[in-house]
Amino acid sequence: MKSGIHPEYRPVVFRDRAAGFAFLTRSTATSDRTIEWEDGETYPVIDVEISSASHAFYTGTARVLDTAGRVERFERRYGKRGER
To answer: Distance between CA 52 and CA 59 in Å, rounded?
Structure first.
C-alpha cells in the first residue's frame, strides 16, 4: 500500500444499544467516545442502530408476505389481464 494516504486501521467496538450487544473488530471508523472492553483495554466505541442481534432477519422475527395469494385475490376481484 502507498504510505500516508490510508486511514489508520485499528480495533474498534461497535455497540447496538437497543439489543445490548457489542463486538470488537478492526475498522478505520473513528469516534471520540471510548469504552473499556472485556480485556481491560480502552477502545473507541461506535453506536449503531441495528446489528445481527436486533435485525429481524437474524432474530427470526421477519415476516414473509403472501404475494401469490394477493395476486389471486386481485384477479378474482377485477379479472385477469387481457379479459374484458
So the answer is: 7
User: What grid cell was written down for 50?
Assistant: 441495528
Task: Return the half-sphere exposure (C-beta side, CA atoms, 13 A cut-off) of residue 1.
Answer: 7
SS (H, E, C) the chain: CCCCCCCCCEEEEEEECCCCEEEEEEECCCCCCEEECCCCCEEEEEEECCCCCCCHHHHCCCCCCCHHHHHHHHHHHHCCCCCC
Comparing 6-10, 25-29, 35-39, 79-83, the range with the smallest average pLDDT is 79-83
Cell numbers at 78, concatenated = 377485477
Q: How many CA atoms lie within 13 A of 19 on its CB side?
A: 18
